[in-house]
Amino acid sequence: MEQRDYILREIEKFGTIINAFRQKIFGCSGNVTITFDNQIANSKGMLLDEMNFDLDMFLGLNTEALNEYISSFDGFNIENIELFADSLSQIGFDDNCGNPRLYLEKAVQLYELCNLKSKTFSFEREAKIKAINNKICSTVMLVDFNNAFASNATCS
Fold it and tell me: Where are the domains of the chain?
């Protein structure tokens, strides 16, 4: 019973911290001198301090290592994993993000981890994955177009 209470407290704590992470990045509309990158950096520090979660390391992991890393935390249940994926996708969709593809790809990996762990199919989660994949493809196409245009290449 004590172990179950501990896990429930961890799940609740992680949910609260992830919501604070999102709020810290996207809720600061008052101080325009704080850049988006600074907000992310401050939020990374909060994740590290509060959860011992290293976002920079996490962003560099392949899918298998990412799944193992997330599974090493008691507080990451399906809902919190999806909430964290929502946060990463929101960062990736933001126009001020320096590397949107990285955040979007990690969000997709987390949504797919939710699909693996969940016993029910989520149309909403699948719609999020599709929207992210569309954004990634459109970004890749735009980069390819800009590179072709800059090098005066012709398209057939």
Answer: 2-150
